[in-house]
Amino acid sequence: QHYYITNNLRVMSEIKPVSISYLDFKAGKDFTEDVSAAFGANGLGLIVIRDLPDFQKERIAALRTIRKFANLSEEIKDKYTHSESNYSFGWSHGKEKMRNGVPDTAKGSYYANTLGDTTTDDQYLKDTFPEMYSDNVWPSEDLPELEPAFKNMSHIQVGVGYMICELFDKYLRGLTNGLHSAGHFLDMLKKGTACKGRLLHYFPAPPAANKSEDGLCGWHLDHGGITILTCPLYLDLEANEIPAPSDCGLHIKHPSDGSIVKVTIPADCLVVQLGESFQYLSGGHLRATAHCVKSSKTPDITRETLACFMDWLPEETMKLPEYTRPYAEVVHTPFLPEGVPDLEGRMKGVKHYRDFYSNTFKAYHSEN
Fold first, then answer.
1. Which residues are 273's β-sheet partners?
2. How far apart are CA 49 and CA 26, in angstroms?
3. Residue 171 scores a pLDDT above 60
4. pLDDT score, position 6
5. Helix, strand, coil proportions of the chain in percent (round to 5)?
6. Confidence band (pLDDT; 50, 70, 90) for 97?
């Protein structure tokens, strides 16, 4: 294996993520080896989906609208923050903590539930679990195009999420000689109402960000079920699209040796990453990985992307399956970066998914 150095990251240069074809999926191909290579003990915890029906119009529309919103005045943006949900709906900037409790100001996010503007009329649930059950907040007065752009692209991502969950069920059923129930996780995911889309705008990085290996988005693991990512869009300060800089982007800690792998997402593909709760519920047979987003030394550029986080029902029981691997292995993350809260600690006292969600939210976010 060969390595190169970029912005203080020791990056493995010769590993490409597992890639599968949407057309092969529709044709019923067996993806057992691909799922194992992508999400097994030595996998990157993600898979690239290619040959999708064209979605570039939706992708570009969504990613350009978040840049427009981020460049509105602070007074206008503040109209669309939602402190009641701890900034988990609408606009959020500087509320999340990453490495060692430092507020993350490198990016701004616009959050919305992708399955509907209102997921419940139960005021108790909204008051008790506002991060999950609040209503969507849209900038209808100041940037009305954001809402349809967000919904159109995230709808495509949700469909890909269901596709991958179907593959996980088939893989686990074969791996466990039928102990895993057919369609179990797909049914769980389709019951879930906490499907959160997150439009991300990474501001032009100050020089100090380039001194850190995770200057745009600190090391972390996604905590939910699965995450579906678009290829990022890079823009100059005049909003002109530019080629992706070679020294930045999504990087992953390789679980076999702790080296860092840069992942490039082609514009016509989507990437699916596994979350920690899926790792736990699969008994450790499917694995999530630590990842970060590295800034570029190129000045005066922004990075736009859309992540879709598909989660379980808050009341879903966090129970290990009968085919689980040893508990210490299930909750272990190899080469966990310094300052990242470990899974074992956040599982303490957890009975339902909402408990794990709450523990994780507290570990990563500020109190304000």
1. 46, 227
2. 12
3. yes
4. 42
5. 30, 25, 45
6. low
Sign of CA dihedral 169, 170, 175, 176: positive
Whether pLDDT at 104 is above 80: no
Q: Catalogue the E-assigned strands of 137-275.
A: 195-202, 217-220, 226-230, 233-236, 249-253, 260-263, 270-274
In the block, tokens 């769980």 appear at 188
Given the structure tokens 């419940």, which residue do they identify?
A: 120
Q: How far apart are CA 363 and CA 298, in angstroms?
A: 32
Other beta carbons within 10 angstroms of residue 144's beta carbon come to 12
Using an 8 Å Cβ cutoff, are 283 and 214 in contact? Answer: no
Question: Do 279 and 311 meet the contact criterion of CB atoms below 8 Å apart?
Answer: no
141, 148 in Cβ contact below 8 A? no
Name, in order, each residue with C-beta under 8 angstroms of 258's C-beta and a sequence gap of 6 or more.
Answer: 334, 335
Q: What is the CA radius of gyration of the chain?
A: 19
Instruction: Provide the whole-model pTM.
Output: 0.90
User: Which tokens in the block code for residue 154?
Assistant: 């995230």
